């Protein structure tokens, strides 16, 4: 933890605040899907894993899990690009299922725009999205915001699944990165 804490400029969302909101989202999703059979949570790797594992403990309707991995190319590690590609597709048959995409953050929206278009082209019943964080300031693609944990300003954030150059995902809080400290390391 010490290593990661060096790069914390400030804690934006502490553990208690995140857990309270995740429980609220789970309760809302449980209510909305109470009459739905065949709910499938689709987690986008890797950033969504902590959010998924906490959120699913608050979803009290039957559901399955699957995972998708995408990469974006062409821009630096601190921002994504329009060139999004599938690294790992879903493993199970999603026909006639109600999909709920679980994502950690929406920034430009390029990633979700690609994933949503790809999934909508398949024979599914419905598709919604839950994101822990929404960073609207840098949005390019139009993304439907069905369930949002927190709307945040244009900070470079990490922790609670979000990485700092592939590390520090394990932090239980979301922090604003000290980019000067990161550049010095
Ligand atoms: C992050 C995040 C989203 C995406 C959002 O993933 O998990 O999937 O960026 O950015 P966008 O809205 O600008 O497309 P990243 O590519 O960093 O991969 P990771 O989840 O493996 O950390």
Please describe what this structure looks like.
- The structure is a single chain.
- This protein has 185 residues and is of the alpha/beta class.
- It has a single domain (4-184), classed as Rossmann fold (3-Layer(aba) Sandwich), CATH 3.40.50.
- It contains 5 helices and 9 strands; from the N terminus they run αβαβαβββαββββα.
- Strands 4-3-2-5-6-7 form a 6-stranded mixed sheet, with helices on both faces. A 3-stranded antiparallel sheet has the order 1-9-8.
- The two termini are 16 Å apart.
- 1-O-pyrophosphono-5-O-phosphono-alpha-D-ribofuranose binds at residues 44-47, 72, 80, 103-111, 163.
Please provide a brief summary of the model.
By secondary structure, the protein is an alpha/beta fold.
CATH structural class: Alpha Beta
Rg, Cα atoms, Å:
16 Å
Biggest pleated sheet = 6 strands, mixed
* CATH topology type: Rossmann fold
The secondary-structure element order is HEHEHEEEHEEEEH
Explain the layout of strands and helices.
Blueprint: H1 2-5, E1 8-13, H2 15-32, E2 39-45, H3 49-55, E3 63-73, E4 83-88, E5 98-106, H4 110-120, E6 126-134, E7 147-151, E8 157-158, E9 174-177, H5 179-184
Parallel strand pairs: 2-3, 2-5, 5-6, 6-7
Antiparallel strand pairs: 1-9, 3-4, 8-9
Bound molecules: 1-O-pyrophosphono-5-O-phosphono-alpha-D-ribofuranose.
1-O-pyrophosphono-5-O-phosphono-alpha-D-ribofuranose is lined by residues 44-47, 72, 80, 103-111, 163.
């Amino acid at each position: 933890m010490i290593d990661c804490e060096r790069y914390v400029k400030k804690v934006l969302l502490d553990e208690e605040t995140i857990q309270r909101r995740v429980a609220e989202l789970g309760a809302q999703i449980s209510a909305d899907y109470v009459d739905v059979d065949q709910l499938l949570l689709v987690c986008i790797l890797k950033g969504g894993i902590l959010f998924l594992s906490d959120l699913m403990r608050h979803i009290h309707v039957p559901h399955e899990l699957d995972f998708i991995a995408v990469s974006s190319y062409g821009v630096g590690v601190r921002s994504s690009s329009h060139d999004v590609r599938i690294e790992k597709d879903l493993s199970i048959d999603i026909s006639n299922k109600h999909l709920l995409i679980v994502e950690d953050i929406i920034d430009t929206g390029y990633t979700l725009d690609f994933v949503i278009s790809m999934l909508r082209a398949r024979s599914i019943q419905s598709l919604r999205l839950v994101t822990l964080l929404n960073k609207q300031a840098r949005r390019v693609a139009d993304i439907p915001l069905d369930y949002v944990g927190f709307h945040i300003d244009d900070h470079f954030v990490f922790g609670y699944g979000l990485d700092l150059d592939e590390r520090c995902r394990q932090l239980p809080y979301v922090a604003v990165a000290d980019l000067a400290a990161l550049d010095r390391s």
